[in-house]
From TrEMBL:
Transmembrane segments: 12-37, 49-69, 100-120, 127-149, 161-182, 203-220, 232-254, 266-285, 291-308, 320-339, 351-374
InterPro entries: Ammonium/urea_transptr, Ammonium_transpt, Ammonium_transpt_CS, NH4_transpt_AmtB-like_dom
Chief location: membrane
Source organism of this protein record: Bacillus salipaludis
Subcellular location: Cell membrane; Membrane
UniProt protein name: Ammonium transporter
Any matching Pfam family: Ammonium_transp
Domain Ammonium transporter AmtB-like per the UniProt entry, residue ranges: 14-403
Membrane-topology annotation of the record: Multi-pass membrane protein
Lineage: Bacteria, Bacillati, Bacillota, Bacilli, Bacillales
Keywords: Ammonia transport, Membrane, Transmembrane, Transmembrane helix, Transport
Record family assignment: Belongs to the ammonia transporter channel (TC 1.A.11.2) family.
Length: 422
């Protein structure tokens, strides 16, 4: 066995393992979102995640991967490689195309899962399935091609190592468009600026989801090296850890002094915001910079959450504050703190301006295509659940079952069904 064969084998094992870690993040999304919503909608959360994994994976295999990584056309779109049938030598991979696809397929599932949380408890499940097709076959792959697939933003020099912009900012602004268009949950906002929506149903469950996401993020970031022998892996892992810790610690301390108590949902989401914030620059910034990036991510997340409430935009799990706002900041942070080319590291304005341009394009693309796509879907299938479906809960309405048969909500559902039978 040659040295090259051993190297390829190690790279393959590394990428497959990190892809599996990223896939495990879907369990994190499921638990996090189920913990943040009312229990009568938690099965619906799980089923949307399964839709992301099953339908999203197939769509990316059939169409999305080719548009993202096929032969470049004018820096805009890939043109071949549907169902992995094509020549991908232009990617210059040290691993097989199959292995690379597996890793990228895990990424696309994460993008659509970001949107899922923002529309929790009120999106029509059938409409959501159609949106999964749109995101995994067109919106994300085309945007991804511009940065990672040989497209025009990548050629300009935009740096996004593991996806603060391509995955999180894009997904977060798509989530914002969906949340605005579908509208808030019934009872979320009243004329007295109060809410009849219950607090998160199960914060321990949400925290376990956050821990799973944190674990998977090491695969997300370090796995993006696509090789087991990259000396940057250790550095990528430590800055990932430091940024997440800084984000969570900032929220913990801030809420403790601001409100006299540490707010659990804020700490959970601020830790995730720190992870999102470091994703673009994990291979480019120093340990010390990662702490600052994470801390600012946590603060921005809390500010964005307050902004949503002030604008009466309902985002049950904080998808926009965590992914969009922190993703934007993380992408900008590369232009500021990158050891090669960062403005504050003596690199001038060039990289920062490219990062800003890329953000405007990617965020606008995600927002506008999601808005237009959901408008189109709404002509065939109502994108919002009916009043009765929302009152009853999406678990019973769309899946015929509830997550638990002992909660007060179960008794309310039983009473609702009995009254309607009479």
């Amino acid at each position: 066995m040659t040295i090259h064969a051993i190297h390829t084998g190690l790279d393959t094992i590394w990428v497959v393992l990190t892809a599996a870690m990223i896939l495990l993040m879907e369990g994190g999304f499921a638990l996090l979102e189920a913990g943040f919503v009312r229990s009568k909608n938690s099965v619906n959360i799980i089923m949307k995640v399964f839709a992301d994994i099953t339908i999203g994976t197939l769509c990316y295999y059939l169409v999305g991967f080719a548009l993202m990584y096929g032969s470049d056309l004018l820096g805009v779109i890939g043109t071949d490689g549907f169902m992995l049938k094509g020549n991908f030598t232009h990617l210059k991979l040290s691993i097989s195309t199959d292995t690379f696809w597996l890793f990228q397929g895990a990424f696309v599932i994460a993008v659509i899962s970001i949107v899922s949380g923002a529309v929790a408890e009120r999106i029509n499940f059938r409409a959501y399935l159609l949106y999964v097709l749109l995101m995994t076959m067109f919106i994300y792959p085309i945007a991804g091609h511009w940065v990672w697939g040989g497209g025009w933003l990548g050629k300009l020099g935009m740096e996004d190592f593991a996806g603060s912009a391509v995955i999180h900012a894009l997904g977060g602004f798509s989530a914002l468009a969906a949340a605005i268009l579908i509208g808030p949950r019934k009872g979320k906002f009243t004329s007295k600026n109060s809410s009849s929506i219950a607090l998160p149903s199960n914060l321990p469950l949400a925290s376990v989801g956050a821990f799973l996401l944190w674990f998977g993020w090491f695969g997300f970031n370090a796995g993006s090296t696509l090789t087991a022998t990259d000396v940057r892996i250790g550095h990528i892992a430590i800055v990932t850890m430091l940024s997440a810790a800084a984000g969570g610690a900032t929220a913990l301390i801030y809420t403790l002094f601001r409100y006299g108590r540490s707010d659990a949902p804020s700490v959970i989401n601020a830790s995730l915001a720190g992870l999102v914030g470091i994703t673009a620059g994990c291979a480019f910034v120093s340990d010390q910079s990662s702490i600052l990036i994470g801390a600012i991510s946590g603060l921005l997340m809390m500010g964005a959450a307050n902004w949503l409430e002030a604008k009466r935009i309902d985002d049950p799990v904080g998808a926009f504050p965590v992914h969009a706002v922190s993703g934007v900041w993380g992408t900008i942070a590369v232009g500021l703190f990158a050891t090669k080319g960062g403005l504050l590291e003596g690199g001038g304005w060039h990289l920062l301006l490219i990062q800003l341009l890329g953000l405007i394009i990617l965020c606008g693309w995600g927002f506008l295509l999601t808005w237009a796509g959901l408008k189109l879907i709404n002509k065939w299938v109502p994108i919002r659940a009916s009043n009765d479906e929302e009152d009853l809960g999406l678990d019973i309405s769309y899946h015929g079952i509830m997550a638990t048969h002992t909660s007060p909500e179960f008794l309310q559902v039983n009473d609702y069904l009995n009254r309607n039978e009479d």
